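User: Let's play a game. I give you a shape written as tokens, and you guess the letters that built it. Ready? Here's round one.
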């Protein structure tokens, strides 16, 4: 889980990133506190800056979600926008 803190635009990149929305996500704990370093993730759910999102951070998962036939050099994919966290 993390908060989208920005977007990334690159004119020169690996072809697996072509026509993909690339976002910068700051990982957070259940209370919204920042943990760890920011990550780059492909957005599959139309997230925006400020959204709390679910991120799959494993290369094979990213490859399957994006429909690539073979492993590509990407690791993280935004797979959901969090509406609410309830720990009760």
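Assistant: Ready! My guess for every position:
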């Amino acid at each position: 889980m993390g908060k989208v803190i920005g977007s990334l635009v690159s004119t020169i990149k690996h072809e697996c990133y072509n026509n993909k929305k690339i976002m910068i996500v700051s990982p957070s704990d259940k209370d919204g506190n920042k943990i760890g370093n920011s990550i780059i993730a492909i957005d599959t759910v139309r997230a925006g800056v400020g959204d709390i999102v679910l991120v799959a951070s494993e290369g094979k998962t990213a490859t399957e979600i994006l429909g690539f036939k073979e492993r590509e050099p990407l690791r993280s994919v935004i797979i959901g926008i969090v509406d609410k966290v309830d720990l009760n």
